[in-house]
Every structure is written in structure tokens, then in C-alpha cells.
Design goal:
alpha/beta; Helicase, Ruva Protein, domain 3; three-stranded mixed beta sheet
């Protein structure tokens, strides 16, 4: 059976570890100066070299090379035994399957035995955060004062779950995500030596998909190598289930042109072809981030083809910086919103709708500002060749005042709430809500205000899907809270659905049946249907 590429390419020397120079240098100095600690904690994302570095440290402390600076040598009997998995004094424990206090007590009983092959017994406990509280407590004393021949190396992807009492007994090292360019360089070396034909575009896609994990990147290349003799960008996209870059470009164009139907069709086509919605959202965010970089500093740091750069330059000019930041935030939320699992495309659809609304609002404000500037009278130009004496400009009368610039009416918190008042302040309300809950704000972009009655605001959705999303308990509670805070008085929200939904129920009055059901029994209006005449 063939060995997986990530195992074949696991580093055997410190020089082969990439992207973690700050940790490698610290550990090499400790070995060369014989200042080895009794307990280490390696934390960081998956696939960044935690277990590999732990094994290298175990090899180094037991290496037979006389020159301490050259350990591990990878040639002596002990180093070869570690590489072949037969070194008796290297014990690897999976904490995910050995979580109980009995497992730790068994380990504690065996710690006292002397090494059988090397100078130190090294215990590598992987995913140590999975240990139970009682297991951590049983390990504490041994971890603090182990026998002189024992070294503990704890590895975890969730360092925040480690008790402070354990952290204080270990030398802590934080592993970082590996930079994309570093991953690409490593993959180029690997594919060349393994005779794997892969295009540079496909290699970049793999590195981007790995999100800082070299092991994930190597595993993806291993997977792709079994599909085709030559790995192209299209092959990688088909296998990995990612949307094409062209779909992202077309979606941004649809936002610029405010073509609702076209953009939704692009999203649905990408998802129907098998693209993962979160990955599609990440690609959109990555592309929009590049537009923002171009907007801010010209995109000098981006490696782009000339024709692509021109296209992105043109697109970036259609956005203001605040608008672009808001759109990036909307799609970023869609990429991380785990609650949208029940409807894969909902997060993307809401982000797309919100993006068009933000762009429209920005353009309206810009147009209004330009109109005001155009309406401001300017002094007539005077010809430099005119020989007649120039008449002095009349001074303005003392009592003349400049016309004030129009501004939106301000709502005084606590004053009478009317439908007209809510309509006037609706844009500001959505802006305030967007800072707290962007998804809820996007939902309000798709609703229609029906009426305000006895402190209750009735809104209507033409889509049952959006109606159900608004009636999520957390979303509805957030909207009520923000509306009440903005208008300075308690406000109930009645969400209705259907193109022909009527007004709120006539029985919704203080002390009425609907009021009692909501306030005393925790009920809420699910749907309002218009009575037949």
C-alpha cells in the first residue's frame, strides 16, 4: 500500500520545517546549550508542524551525534529507530481516545521506569485538550515534577481549553499558519520530485484552500494526482468543489449593475454545480479584498495579469471604500454563519441583497451631494483682455443669510411613533442594526413597512423563506431591542408574509388577546392573513 504524501514528506531535520522559524530556533538553541525543559506545550492550527516538531525534539534529545548543534543527525541508530517507529522511549498518546483519569494514572505509573534505548523517555500527548478535568488533575503533579529522564510534549489545536494550572507548568510555543507563498514553494519542490504535473494556477488554488495548513495542502495534491496526469485549474476546481473565478467576477459585476436576478442565478448555478457555499463566499471575500487593496494603494502588492488588473481597477472605481468594506463584511459573515446550514444559499443571497442596497444607498448620497454642489452659484469668469474698468462686486447685505443645507429630520426619542416617522428613520435604523446583526439588517432591506399601531410595527415579506428567517427567536429579539433603543420606547415587531398580507390584527391593543398572549404567555404572531370581505 502506497504511503500518503504528507507522511513521505514529513520533515526529518530542523531545516525541513517551514514557516515556524521562531520555534525551531528556540528549540535548537535549547538543545545546543543543554537547557531542555521537562514539559512543552505546542499550540496552533492543524497541519502547521506541532507533532512533527515534537518528534524532532524527541529525536534531538536522544541523538548520538557528539556535536549538539547538529542534533538530530538523522543517521545514528536512535534517529533511524525514531524514523522507523521502533524507538521504545518515544511514546505517543492520542488524548482523544484516552481521556479518562484511569488512562492518566496508568501513564503516571509507567513514568518512573528508566529509558530502555535512549537518554530520555519522551511522552507526546496529542490533542491534549480532550482530557477530562479529573485527568488533568491527575497529570498535574507528574507534569510539574517528572523524573529527570522524562520529557512531556503536549500538542493541541485548542489551547484556550487547557487549564491555567497546566499552562503554568509548560514551556508554551504558538505555531502559526504557514504563509501561502511558503506553501506554494514547498509544493513546487514536492511535485517536481514526485513527477506530478500541475499548473501554477492550480497550485495557487490548492495553497489557498489549505488556509495555512501544509499538511492539508500536500493531502490535496495527493488527491488531485490520482485524478489526472496533468492537474489544471479546472480539474482542481472540479475535484475540490470550488466555484470558478469567472463566477466571482460576474457576481461583482451584477452587484455594480444592481441586477438582482442575474446575481441570484450566478449563486444558484455555482451551488448547483457542487460548489461549497462557504468556500464560494470565501472566494468572493478574497476577490473583494483585492479590490479594496487596489482602492487603497493601487494594488502594487498583488500579482495580477495585466488584463485582470485592468478589469479590477475598473470595478474598484464603482465602489467607495466604506461601501466596499461593508460588502466584504456581509460576505465574510456568510462564509462563517453556521446557522444557515438548513438552507445552503441563504447566507450568500442575503449578503448579495445587502450589497446592492449598500451600493444603491452610497450612490444616492453621492448623487445628492453632487447636485447640491452644482446648485451652488459660482462667480462669473473675467476675461484678462478686458480693458474697461472692472466693476466692484456688490457686498452682501448684512441681513442676508446663506441657505441652510437640507438634512434629514431627526427623531426625538420618546415622541409619538408613527409610520411616517419610522419611514423617515428607516435607513438610520438599518445602519445601526447592521453593526449589531448584519443578517437581521439584510432581512429588513427586503421587507415592507405596513403600519404602526399601539407601539407595534407591522412588516411584510413577500418571501416565506425570509419571513421564517426573521421570526427566528434571536433575530426578532435583536430587532425589537434595537428599534426600542433607537426610538426610545418599547416597540413590538409583527412579521407577516405574503404579497397580500393585511394589517396587524385589530385585537392587538393593550390588554387585548394578542397583547396578553405575547406578554404573559410568551407567544408571538406567526402570520397575519387578510380577512375575506
Amino acid at each position: 500500500m502506497a504511503q500518503a504524501l504528507y507522511r513521505t514528506w514529513r520533515p526529518h531535520l530542523w531545516e525541513e520545517v517551514v514557516g515556524q522559524d521562531h520555534i525551531v530556533q528556540t528549540l535548537r538553541n535549547a538543545i545546543s546549550q543543554e537547557r531542555i525543559g521537562h514539559a512543552y506545550l505546542f499550540g496552533g492550527p492543524r497541519g502547521t508542524g506541532k507533532t512533527t516538531s515534537a518528534r524532532l525534539l524527541a529525536k534531538a534529545v536522544n541523538c548520538l551525534e557528539p556535536d549538539l548543534a547538529r542534533r538530530p543527525c538523522d543517521k545514528c541508530a536512535n534517529c533511524v529507530a525514531v524514523n522507523e517507529g521502533r524507538f521504545m522511549d518515544l511514546i505517543e498518546i492520542d488524548a482523544a481516545s484516552n481521556t479518562s483519569v484511569d488512562d492518566v494514572r496508568d501513564l503516571r505509573d509507567k513514568v518512573g521506569f528508566a529509558p530502555s534505548q535512549g537518554r530520555f523517555k519522551v511522552y507526546i500527548i496529542d490533542e491534549v485538550h480532550m482530557l477530562s478535568t479529573s485527568a488533568f488533575n491527575a497529570l498535574l503533579k507528574t507534569l510539574e515534577e517528572p523524573p529527570s529522564h522524562v520529557i512531556f510534549i503536549l500538542a493541541t489545536t485548542e489551547i484556550h481549553k487547557i487549564p491555567a494550572t497546566v499552562l503554568s507548568r509548560c514551556q508554551r510555543h504558538e505555531f502559526r499558519r504557514i504563509p501561502m507563498q511558503t506553501i506554494i514553494q514547498k509544493l513546487k519542490l514536492l511535485t517536481k520530485q514526485e513527477n506530478i504535473q500541475i499548473d501554477d494556477d492550480a497550485l495557487s488554488l490548492v495553497a489557498r484552500q489549505a488556509t495555512g495548513s501544509l499538511r492539508d495542502a500536500i493531502s490535496l495534491v495527493d488527491q488531485l494526482s490520482s485524478v489526472s496526469q496533468r492537474i489544471t485549474l479546472q480539474t482542481a476546481q472540479d475535484v475540490l468543489g470550488t466555484a470558478t473565478s469567472q463566477a466571482v467576477i460576474e457576481l461583482v459585476d451584477a452587484i455594480i449593475k444592481k441586477e438582482h436576478a442575474v446575481g441570484l442565478e450566478i449563486i444558484h448555478k455555482a451551488l448547483d454545480s457542487g460548489s461549497d457555499p462557504r468556500q464560494f463566499a470565501r472566494q468572493i471575500v478574497d476577490y473583494l479584498r483585492n479590490l479594496l487593496v487596489i482602492k487603497l494603494e493601487g494594488g502594487k502588492s498583488l500579482e495580477l495579469m495585466p488584463e485582470v488588473r485592468k478589469q479590477m481597477n475598473d470595478q474598484s472605481e464603482e465602489f467607495t471604500t466604506p461601501c466596499l468594506v461593508g460588502i466584504i463584511s456581509a460576505f465574510s459573515n456568510a462564509a462563517t454563519d453556521l446557522k444557515a446550514n438548513w438552507h445552503p444559499g441563504l447566507g450568500l443571497e442575503l449578503a448579495y441583497s445587502s450589497s446592492i442596497s449598500d451600493l444603491t444607498q452610497t450612490q444616492l448620497v453621492s448623487s445628492k451631494t453632487q447636485s447640491q454642489r452644482a446648485a451652488t452659484p459660482t462667480a462669473p469668469a473675467v476675461s484678462s483682455t478686458r480693458k474697461e474698468p472692472i466693476a466692484a462686486k456688490p457686498e452682501p447685505k448684512p441681513d442676508s443669510k446663506p441657505m441652510p443645507e437640507p438634512k434629514a429630520a431627526e427623531f426625538v426619542p420618546g415622541s409619538a411613533l408613527t409610520l411616517e416617522a419610522v419611514n423617515e428613520q428607516w435607513s438610520e435604523v438599518k445602519k445601526q442594526l447592521k453593526r449589531v446583526d448584519p443578517v437581521a439588517a439584510a432581512l429588513l432591506n427586503s421587507c415592507k413597512l405596513l403600519e404602526v399601531n399601539n407601539g407595534a410595527l407591522t412588516i411584510n415579506f413577500s418571501s416565506e423563506l425570509l419571513y421564517e428567517k426573521m421570526n427566528n427567536e434571536k433575530t426578532l429579539r435583536t430587532v425589537k431591542k434595537e428599534l426600542s433603543a433607537y426610538f426610545g420606547q418599547p416597540i413590538e415587531v409583527i412579521s407577516t408574509a405574503g404579497q397580500n398580507a393585511g394589517r396587524s390584527p385589530q385585537g392587538y391593543e393593550p390588554g387585548g388577546l394578542v397583547d396578553l398572549a405575547q406578554k404573559e404567555l410568551g407567544g408571538r404572531v406567526r402570520k397575519v392573513e387578510k380577512k375575506k370581505e
